[in-house]
Structures are given as structure tokens and as C-alpha cells.
Amino acid sequence: QVRLVESGGGLVQAGGSLRLSCANSGIIFSTDTMGWYRQAPGKQRELVAAITSGGITNYAESVKGRFTISRDNAKNTVYLQMNSLKPEDTAVYYCNVRRAWLNSDYWGQGTQVTVSS
């Protein structure tokens, strides 16, 4: 069972920083990919960043150089450090675990990030 709980969202001015955390109280396998997605009002959910247990990362072009994803396998936790935030980063951010061998995705409840101009 995977149970994801996000924290760290909030309101920040443009140019500021936030750090999101996602803790999983269930089992994470070494083959699971953990990541962050976001969904702005009226838009589809999109990948922000993902990381394998081996530390291989993948970022959306729009956040490269500004966001950093990291993972603590011992704590079953994934983080998203967001710097130089822009108003267009405003969205609900969702933590995700992708279990490829089961073709399954698990989601957190989401945390709101609002960047004011």
C-alpha cells in the first residue's frame, strides 16, 4: 500500500523559494519512480520532475535550472526544491509514485503553490 502525504506548499512572491516534501507511509520498491506533477486551473496535469531510486532525474523544460528533485530512499520521501518561482508556477502540486511493473500510479492529495507577481 502506498500512502503519500505532501507538505510545504504556500504563497510566495515571484523570485522566492519553496520546498515541497512527500512522505510515503507504505512500501516503496527500488523500481518505483517518484515524482511531482502539477495542475493549474483549466489545464491538464503535467510532469514537473521525477527521480528513480538510483537518482536519475527528469525535468520539465519550464523548470530546468530552477527546481531540484531529490529522494531519501531510507525515509521513503521525495522533495522538490523550487527556486526563482514565477507566477506561472502557480498550481496544485501532486506527489506521484509510478510502479511500472504493476502499471500503477499512486497520488498524494495535492498541495497548493501560489506565486504572486
Written account of the structure:
- The chain is mostly beta strands.
- 0% of the residues lie in helices and 53% in strands.
- It is built from no helices and eleven strands.
- The strands form two sheets. Strands 2, 4, 5, 6, 9, 10 and 11 form a seven-stranded mixed β-sheet that branches. A four-stranded antiparallel β-sheet has the order 1-3-8-7, with no helix packed on it.
- The radius of gyration is 13 Å and the shape is globular.
Q: Whole-Å distance between the termini?
A: 40 Å
Unreliable residue runs: none
Please outline the major beta sheet. 7 strands, mixed
Number of strands: 11
Helical residue percent band:
under 10%
Broad shape: globular
DSSP summary: helix tally: 0
Nearest-angstrom radius of gyration? 13 Å
Element order: H for helix, E for strand: EEEEEEEEEEE
Structural class: mainly beta
Q: On the 0-100 scale, what is the average pLDDT?
A: 95
Residue share in β-strands: over 45%
Short description:
It is built from no helices and eleven strands.
Quick tags:
117 residues; mainly beta; 7-stranded mixed beta sheet; 4-stranded antiparallel beta sheet; 53% strand; globular
